[in-house]
């Protein structure tokens, strides 16, 4: 048996052993969840104080006995810049160094067990009722196709006899996706919202013939009209997974109660804040969140900034769950670029850009035959090589005589603190509207449907 396969099977065993516990927590009452978060927070900060040189300097004064969710706001926040600049000092395992980790990203296949289970535990609970004697369910995952993205890595790592997975790259031509899905006939369809949206149209046009039991949207905002189209295409529950690579599943749709989501209240602490970092109360849309990942002690992320707009809802769910409700996040719209009949998913750009670690921010503006890209670089980045890679990818997808330019800039213009990363040609004129001009003061809670779909922002990819 290969080293990889041995490692993979060990992860599968770990996951199956932990599954019961993590599924059980879905039914924990509010008070038990809160006590669990406080205890896990103290355990995490203790690890950070003792084993992470970077955190030790910042957190040595923190009194663990007085630390809880309510006092967490006194701790300093951390950003992606902090993470990239201090990675080797932040990790708690001496063997991990950023260069070592980066060298292995291409081959990376092991995803964290808790991150994986946080993503699939709702599904495993539903699958407990899978008909006896029927074939084991098969999940098709339409994502980035590279292991640097969590969804793909998790799908490969945790494929088991109980739940098979097939991974498809979102950037491949839609005809190939349709053919591949038709061949494997998945029971669960899991993928980027925009990719599912395209597939729903293929299904309604009669070209894609599959009958999934569940459709699970992730990585991009699931806008109300997209949700509706997915439901019409397959007539089954459409679940929205709000997640990021840094923390796994942050929130997941409650298909038992309504179109809102439950926070993974046992795995993360989410603090909704304004652009200046002030707390935002439930019912109001936050400009960003600080996320504390309670289960990753190897890379402690404590009050880590994620620039997503999140709205906590101030009422319990009809399903009886004790997990905090949030509205469907609408703040991560990555539009598809259309070049005549060729549709290019933003991932074609996002993947090469996100792999260059010195590019900390970017914006891709579609042009008639390609794109103009501005990038904020912290450190050297070979932009000519990046241009060449993007040209190759566009050519492969059939864009005629593509043109791409990448320019380093000091900063990228934002409106109301938001960055729109992908701007299609047709959407450029409506940028003002799309970036929060119609932001409501309140977001409707359970029982009403939010019609607002404004705003985009930077989001760590769960792919
Ligand atoms: Zn619910």
Which descriptors apply to this entry?
alpha/beta, eight-stranded mixed sheet, 17 strands
Description of the molecule:
The chain is an alpha/beta fold. 33% of the residues lie in helices and 19% in strands. It is built from 13 helices and 17 strands. The strands form 4 sheets. The protein has an 8-stranded mixed sheet, with helices on both faces. A 4-stranded mixed sheet has the order 16-15-14-17, with helices on one face. A 3-stranded antiparallel sheet has the order 8-9-10, with no helix packed on it. Helix 9 packs across helix 10 and helix 11 packs antiparallel against helix 12. The two termini are 29 Å apart. The C terminus is likely disordered. Bound molecules: zinc ion. Zinc ion binds next to loops. The site of zinc ion has 7 residues, from loops.
Shape summary: globular
The structure class reads alpha/beta
**What's the story with the biggest beta sheet?**
8 strands, mixed
Bound molecules: zinc ion
Q: What is the terminal separation in angstroms?
A: 29 Å
The portion of residues forming beta strands comes to: 15-25%
Mean pLDDT: 78
Topology, number of strands: 17
Percent of residues in helices comes to 25-40%
How many DSSP helices?
13
Strand line-up across the major sheet = 2-1-3-4-5-6-7-11
Computed Rg? 21 Å
Spans with pLDDT under 50 lasting ≥5 residues? 105-111, 414-418, 427-463
What is the H/E order?
HHHHHHEHEHEHEHEEEEEEEEEHEEHEEH
Please write out the topology.
Layout: H1 3-24, H2 30-51, H3 53-59, H4 80-90, H5 98-103, H6 113-127, E1 138-143, H7 150-157, E2 164-169, H8 174-184, E3 188-192, H9 193-204, E4 214-218, H10 224-234, E5 238-244, E6 248-253, E7 261-263, E8 268-273, E9 288-293, E10 304-306, E11 325-326, E12 337-339, E13 342-344, H11 347-355, E14 359-367, E15 370-377, H12 383-396, E16 403-408, E17 422-423, H13 431-437
Parallel strand pairs: 1-2, 1-3, 3-4, 4-5, 14-17, 15-16
Antiparallel strand pairs: 5-6, 6-7, 7-11, 8-9, 9-10, 12-13, 14-15
Helix pairs in contact: 1-6, 2-3, 9-10, 11-12
The protein binds zinc ion.
Residues 254, 256-257, 262, 317, 319, 321 line the site of zinc ion (ZN).
């Amino acid at each position: 048996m290969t080293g990889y396969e041995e490692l993979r099977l060990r992860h599968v065993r770990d996951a199956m052993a932990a599954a019961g516990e993590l599924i059980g927590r879905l039914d924990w009452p509010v008070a038990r969840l809160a006590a669990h978060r406080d205890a896990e927070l103290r355990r995490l900060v203790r690890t950070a104080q003792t084993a992470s040189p970077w955190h030790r300097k910042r957190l040595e004064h923190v009194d663990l006995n007085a630390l809880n969710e309510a006092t967490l706001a006194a701790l300093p926040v951390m950003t992606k810049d902090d993470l990239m600049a201090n990675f080797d000092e932040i990790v708690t395992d001496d063997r991990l160094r950023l260069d070592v980790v980066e060298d292995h990203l291409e081959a990376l296949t092991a995803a964290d067990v808790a991150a994986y289970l946080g993503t699939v535990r709702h599904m495993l609970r539903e699958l407990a009722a899978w008909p006896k004697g029927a074939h084991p369910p098969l999940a098709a995952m339409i994502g980035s196709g590279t292991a640097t993205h969590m969804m793909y890595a998790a799908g490969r790592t945790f494929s088991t006899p109980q739940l098979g997975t097939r991974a498809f790259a979102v950037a491949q031509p839609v005809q190939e996706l349709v053919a591949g899905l038709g061949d494997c006939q998945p029971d669960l369809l899991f993928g980027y919202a925009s990719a599912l949206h395209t597939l729903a149209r293929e299904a309604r046009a009669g070209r894609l013939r599959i009958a999934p039991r569940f459709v699970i949207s992730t990585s991009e905002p699931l806008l109300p009209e997209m949700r509706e189209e997915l439901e019409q295409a397959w007539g089954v529950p459409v679940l929205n997974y709000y997640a990021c690579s840094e923390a796994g599943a942050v929130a997941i749709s409650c298909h038992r109660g309504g179109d809102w989501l439950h926070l993974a209240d046992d795995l993360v602490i989410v603090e909704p804040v304004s652009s200046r970092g002030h707390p935002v109360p439930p019912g109001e849309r936050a400009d960003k969140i600080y996320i504390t990942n309670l289960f990753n002690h190897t890379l402690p992320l404590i009050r880590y900034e994620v620039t997503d707009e999140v709205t906590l809802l101030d009422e319990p769910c009809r399903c009886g769950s004790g997990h905090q409700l949030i509205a469907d996040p609408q703040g991560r719209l990555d539009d598809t670029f259309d070049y005549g009949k060729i549709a290019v998913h933003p991932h074609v750009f996002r993947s090469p850009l996100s792999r260059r670690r010195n590019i900390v921010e970017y914006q891709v503006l579609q042009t008639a035959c390609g794109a103009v890209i501005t990038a904020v670089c912290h450190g050297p980045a070979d932009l000519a090589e990046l241009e060449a890679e993007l040209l190759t990818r566009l050519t492969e997808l059939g864009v005629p005589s593509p043109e791409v330019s990448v320019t380093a800039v000091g900063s990228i213009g934002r409106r109301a603190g938001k960055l729109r990363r992908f701007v299609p040609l047709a959407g450029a004129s409506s940028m003002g509207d799309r970036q929060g001009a119609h932001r409501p003061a309140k977001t409707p809670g359970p029982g009403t449907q939010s019609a607002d779909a404004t705003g985009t922002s930077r989001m760590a990819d769960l792919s």
